[in-house]
Amino acid sequence: MGKALAEIAHQLQDANKKVQLIYAFNGTGKTRLSREFKQLIAPKADGDDAPSSELADKKMLYYSAFTEDLFYWDNDLGRDAEPKLKIQPNAFTKWVLEEQGQDQNIVTTFQRYTSEKLTPHFSADFSSVSFSFERGNNQQEPHVKISKGEESNFIWSVFNALLEQVISELNITEVADRSTDVFNNLSYVFVDDPVSSLDENHLIELAVNVAGLIKSSQSDLKFIVTTHSPLFYNVLFNELNSKACYMLERFEDGSFALTEKPGDSNKSFSYHLHLKQTIEHAIAENRVERYHFTLLRNLYEKTASFLGYRSWSELLPDDRQLYLSRVINFTSHSTLSNEAVAQPTPAEKATVKLLLDHLHSTHGFWQQQQGA
Fold it and tell me: What is the pTM (predicted TM-score) of this model?
């Protein structure tokens, strides 16, 4: 029987782990879980509909779609004005930008994940930011509206600056020796899919940097990271030592389950990608050979392991026995040294494509990969 998200939040709190890493498909409820967890750790007082204005009041920091809602575009199309990203008044941007002057650090982080030429320009009062491409000359470049992915990158860069300082300050054991006391009440950092639009190289870089920040934390601060990206999850899993790993699932009745995943089942993510790409290349080149059936079976086995199926054959299309026989025929090892090695016929080669397409379209893990 499934649980309500509030019960899942209690499960995370009761685990009392330094790092908890959660994989879930898009639309499962990761962002709603972050809100439930915030309500559990730091419930609002009756009638308090607005977020606290001071960081010192906060017991939890979280990055999610709600964080991104603090930023919105002022296009002002009526006056044909240049677009700018407005920043709603809030505690964490006030601290990072106005009180700590981290604007240049934010620019550097943002350009690391996008382009060194795409430059943010903050207004004097830090109420908005504009973007332009700097060409290395004195010519004034017009401001542009950046993509949704670049916007997400920018907002993460602001949060990253705050997170760096939080960890640095709380690493100072003696409270009296800290340069500020605004973080002393913090107990959790909840990060939900920091950036979902990066290419693989930058996504790996981001995951390594996030893992590095978490590993640098020497205080009692606890971290919960959720993602729908298998690659991001895989890098975090490999980078972080002591952590609890889960899969969040949502059932038809609207209930949820948070299932702990043992070690080996977390290692197949990046290997999944390699297998898939190898098979896709063979199909595109019309060079499907006997060993591609072995790769396909391996792909099914690892996907089944990750999704919690007892047997990989459970993932096959409706006529399972037919496809099971075809795959096993090309993955079994013959004991006769003089037996001729049969090569796949055109129809059997087509089976590889059919089964790979089936894995893409039927199981959420691969639907996320296809949309990445």
Answer: 0.72
